[in-house]
Amino acid sequence: MFGKPWATALTIGVMAVAIALPLGLWAALANVERFTGSVQESRQISLFLKTSVAADRARALGDELRGRADIASVELRTPEQGLAELRERGGLGEAIDALGAGGNPLPSLLVVTPKGDEALLAGSLKNLPEVDVVQHDAGWRQRLDGWLRFGGRLALVLAALLGLGALLVVGNTVRLDIQSRREEIGVLQLLGASDGFIRRPFLYLGACYGLVAGALALTLLTAADWSLRAPLAELAGSYGSGFELQGFNPIQALAIVLGAGLLGWLGAGFVTGHYLRQTRPTT
């Protein structure tokens, strides 16, 4: 490897990129899924009551809904609570103060957590006379889940294709090395060396290519992670979120490097075995 640094660098570089691409996509999907996890897990339905509904009636309606078999819980948020939340989180303190004696324009809100089919429950709650607006994001979550599943399948397809490409790269590099040593291999065969003895150095060579390429792929992904972490944290902070990118833990990193080494080992093994079967001397 050190005797032909340019060819070694090309082989390792191509393998590293082939490994990094599907891993980067997989890591991005994992972060997106983690970021949207609270949204996906949330099945709550928000019932905005008509402004004419009094607080006592809103509480009574909440008690009635709690008695339904298809509802797990109901939380009442009064107009005063909604106004206080806007004042604290929405940055609308001055605008709220400007309302003055105009009163509180916010309606009462019932946050319903369903037990069964949330879409069916949302449709039935729309028919309540006290309800003005039903907010339910199940359709958006289903589309998001569909995109995440598609992205996961795409990552698997890319991993298979690029993994095959890495195998071919290692195989071609080892094939060239075998061609340059064919006279030496022929002498070893005539002296009675076993196929395993001849194959072993090339297997080690392929494994070394894979291990170094796996480490380089992790280095590239770590550099990309660090370059994106600060602007993403700033963007998430503008929305009041503390979300940060999450990279590979030590166990995952070790598995990636060992998997890349195994990939190089297999590529070298296939090529070397094919060559030895063709050149085995007949008795």
TrEMBL record:
Record's keyword annotation contains Membrane: yes
Cell compartment(s), UniProt: Cell inner membrane
Domain of life assignment: Bacteria
Subunit: Forms a membrane-associated complex with FtsE.
NCBIfam families: FtsX_Gneg
Domain ABC3 transporter permease C-terminal: 157-272
Transmembrane segments: 7-29, 154-174, 202-224, 251-276
FtsX extracellular domain mapped to chain residues: 44-134
Function: Part of the ABC transporter FtsEX involved in cellular division.
Gene3D superfamilies according to UniProt: 3.30.70.3040
Protein name: Cell division protein FtsX
Alphabetically ordered keywords of this record: Cell cycle, Cell division, Cell inner membrane, Cell membrane, Membrane, Transmembrane, Transmembrane helix
Membrane topology of the entry: Multi-pass membrane protein
Family: Belongs to the ABC-4 integral membrane protein family. FtsX subfamily.
Organism: Lysobacter niastensis
